[in-house]
Amino acid sequence: MQTRKLGPFTVSAIGLGAMPMSMNNDKVYPDHDDAVATVQAALDAGITLIDTADVYAPTWDTMGHNERIVGEAVRTYTGSTADVVIATKGGIVRGEGETRRRDGSLDYLRSAVEKSLTALGVDQLDLYQWHRPDRWMVYGQAIENFKTLQDEGLIKAIGISNANVEEIEVALQVLGEGGLASVQNEFSPRFRSSQDELDLCAEHGVAFLPWSPLGGTGGGATGIGREFAAFAEIGEAHGVSPQQVVLAWELSLSDVVIPIPGARRPASIADSAKAADLVLTEDELARCSATGRP
Ligand SMILES: NC(=O)c1ccc[n+]([C@@H]2O[C@H](COP(=O)([O-])OP(=O)(O)OC[C@H]3O[C@@H](n4cnc5c(N)ncnc54)[C@H](OP(=O)(O)O)[C@@H]3O)[C@@H](O)[C@H]2O)c1
């Protein structure tokens, strides 16, 4: 498996997005053992980056659901897990009645980190990402809170998610060049409007993790070849799925790009992992770039 840099880590060029096993638009969930098997199928395929979050859970009172699956899958895997990086997120609060709010305060984030450490069964979080900005706070102040958690040894690397250009620039200023490991934003043929953030990450050597890289659950990912025929046609020419073509095209956009396709089934993540080895011609890549929504 091709590798890429993610802050202090070297990870597989394709990661696993674990969210659909605990939260998805179809509201269909694998049972626990099947979910663990899907994470382990990703590891079998050479994937060493797994993305999760404390809020990935079917209900507000089961927060940590996805982290517990990921933690158990990695702990009980019989192969080597020495290079596995688990990326989790915090900053969103789910409450009774499915209320949601955001909290970037140090006290809240520290308590969220402690819960994530327990759910994952680890002593330090590899990559801790600020899930979504808390608009009640100055952005730079929340980033300083992440830095404090890093200085305390609770987290190894810092990432941000759903951040615009200005917010990335603030994070770079607060953390210094090299201090921001990653930015995770929505990006796919259906959603291209994070291109400016991708370009800024490329300029600074910050890993860019496209979320919902295939177009999301609820039909987006499975229907990507029907929605954008170029991916299906190029896939047919190579004897691979349209989803592999989408991921290979995303990888071609910059060395900092690390897509994290979601999966509930071992077969889909095993297929997606192969995108790291799919070589497309310049013409095919240009055709992919010319398709999709702005
Ligand atoms: N930071 C954020 O705010 C944010 C928001 C959303 C998502 N995310 C992250 O991004 C990850 C990916 O996003 P996502 O799961 O929403 O969308 P996605 O990766 O675009 O699509 C996931 C769906 O694609 C299907 N799939 C995956 N590979 C396939 C293949 N090779 N062939 C056919 N179908 C395939 C899966 O099917 P099966 O389920 O049948 O296996 C799954 O349902 C999430 O898991 C999460 O970690 C982050």
Radius of gyration: 18 Å
Strand order of the largest sheet: 3-4-5-8-9-10-11
Number of domains: 1
Q: Between the first and last Cα atoms, what is the distance in angstroms?
A: 31 Å
Tell me what the CATH architecture is: Alpha-Beta Barrel
Mean pLDDT score: 97
- What's the CATH topology name? TIM Barrel
- Largest beta sheet, briefly? 7 strands, parallel
Order of helices and strands: EEEHEHEEEHEHEHEHEHHHHH
- The rough form would be described as globular
| Low-confidence residue ranges | none
**Share in β-strands:** 15-25%
Helicity level, as a percent range? 25-40%
* Number of helices, counting only DSSP H or I runs of 4 residues or more: 11
Question: How would you name the CATH homologous superfamily?
Answer: NADP-dependent oxidoreductase domain
Bound small molecules, by name, code or SMILES, are: NADP nicotinamide-adenine-dinucleotide phosphate
For the record, the CATH class is Alpha Beta
Structural class: alpha/beta
Compute the number of strand runs: 11
GO molecular function, one term: oxidoreductase activity
Keywords: Oxidoreductase
GO cellular component, one term: cytoplasm
Pfam families: Aldo_ket_red
What does this entry look like structurally?
This protein has 294 residues and is α/β, with parallel strands linked by helices. It has one domain (3-290): NADP-dependent oxidoreductase domain (TIM Barrel, Alpha-Beta Barrel), CATH 3.20.20.100. Helices cover 39% and strands 18% of the residues. It has helices at 32-44, 65-76, 106-120, 139-151, 165-175, 195-204, 224-227, 229-238, 242-253, 266-273, 282-289, and strands at 3-6, 9-12, 16-17, 49-51, 85-90, 92-95, 99-102, 125-130, 155-161, 180-186, 207-211. A 7-stranded parallel beta sheet has the order 3-4-5-8-9-10-11, with helices on one face. A two-stranded antiparallel sheet has the order 1-2. It has a two-stranded antiparallel sheet with strand order 6-7. The longest helix has 15 residues, at 106-120. The protein is globular and about 55 Å long. The two termini are 31 Å apart. The model has no long low-confidence stretch (mean pLDDT 97). Bound molecules: NADP nicotinamide-adenine-dinucleotide phosphate. The site of NADP nicotinamide-adenine-dinucleotide phosphate (NAP) has 28 residues, from α10. One of its GO terms (molecular function) is oxidoreductase activity. One of its GO terms (cellular component) is cytoplasm. Pfam families: Aldo_ket_red. Keywords: Oxidoreductase.
